[in-house]
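ok trying this again, last paste got cut off
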Amino acid sequence: MIKYKSPQKEEEEEKDRVDWTPRIITGGKEPPDDEGKCWLEKLPIGNVFIARDKTNPSDYLGRLFRVASKLENTVVLNTPEHPSPLYAIPHIFCRKWMMHEDLGQMIMKEEEENDSDRIQPDNGEQGSVVE
């Protein structure tokens, strides 16, 4: 058996139907700021710091790092746990490690001796090492 709708029922259904139009929701948070996330790039050469692993919250031990030098897109780090230098990509390093404590500058004896051998230019530029 086929049921047909009467014209009166169709009119009643149209009156009951609510028109819906999508709306744009305003407000909310702004996009995340990446400026404060890459803290490693901002540290000067010779700076010593303790960092904690963000990916392992149950790890309560901090790791000691020292900024040995900087390349164009890489920061060279020294740590007592590894005898060879670590070449860290700053934005990836900062995703995994969180700065726990900044211990300040630490100058090694070799660097101190090299500082006495540097030529001091007259125009205020950084000097070069004389060998």
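PB: full thing came through this time. The mean pLDDT is 77.
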